[in-house]
């Protein structure tokens, strides 16, 4: 392990603060699946955890502040006929979640404003077309309602939901042609670049590939001689790829790559001899990297840079309880008053416990907004439509400020004023329900250029929506 000095870093005193049992989620029957996924996904409103279930597959959705003991009979999302393997919240809709399963389908669910009050069995959309279990799903980082799925039928597809049942993808990213069982088609990990124009994947042959997600063309392939990759991700802002895997001597490794040249790694480091898969998590705002192993009780924290030595060790957060998977809270859901820069949700299967773990940078004036810790970050508004992405357009994510009262102008023109009205109404709807207990801090103003008459229409629609929400929450 690297123990290089990091005295020049403002994050050198970062520490992990686990939540107490009263502020954790106790009594959650976490899935016993051995698939190498996170089994958990979080946003500022809800947390979703894949649960153990007989006769099908299910996951539980809890309001983010619904901590403490969870009722064993709490309603679940249980529309799959097979075990659920992955769940992901839509980055642009806090009430929309996708799930994939061993029943060969991907389903998209609408979660009610006040949470799941009864078993949810009917999905908004069902995406079919795979012939074997679907192991991975990933939302596009900038295009609205665009989802990538990877299955054990050696197919990788880009899907968009425009009707109730989707049979054909908008793009087939990878598909076997000549080989019967091509190991490069069975993916272990996928990661979109910052603007979604490139896709990095690891596969069964333990190599890294960089693809064009629109055409499926393979642009770069790594060698498997010195590093057998398991997980890969793009490090936004540093123009590097990071992978975790094992060395020829079965030591767990982290490796940095130039995404334009995968012939030789930029940096390699052996960590330990454990066997669990290392999950990497990267924060592009602070350039901090977190490594958490499946079955481990520790999380390592590093700081990355674009110059040598590229990576500096900061600290290690230890726990006696092993984690089966981890969820991550988006930056807009963090507590900026407590100088929280990252938050995990550790799935501790041996205790049926989901434990929040906050990474905090201590400051003297912790109640004051720290500008250097919270630069403009990825917001919850899409930068483009699926049709624009398919036509070849590339856009970075729309940014927002985490400072209360700060507004960030939309850098991209709206396709229509009505689209802005719908987005603003959706954001207001999610913030008004007291049963959720979470506030989505979206400070982007998308209505600045809307004519006065349309603005009045928006106000009237919001009044109607607020009255309906209050009535619904009172009934609940």
From TrEMBL:
Pfam families given in the database record: DUF1899, WD40, WD40_4
UniProt record similarity statement: Belongs to the WD repeat coronin family.
Phylogenetic classification of the source organism: Eukaryota, Metazoa, Chordata, Craniata, Vertebrata
Domain of life, per lineage: Eukaryota
Gene Ontology molecular function terms on file: actin filament binding
Domain DUF1899: start-end pairs: 6-68
Stated name of the protein: Coronin
InterPro entries assigned to the protein according to its UniProt record, in alphabetical order: Coronin, DUF1899, WD40/YVTN_repeat-like_dom_sf, WD40_repeat_CS, WD40_repeat_dom_sf, WD40_rpt
Organism this protein belongs to: Anabas testudineus (Climbing perch)
Keywords, sorted A to Z: Repeat, WD repeat
PANTHER family reported for this sequence: CORONIN (PTHR10856), CORONIN-2A (PTHR10856:SF2)
Repeat region (WD), residues: 77-111
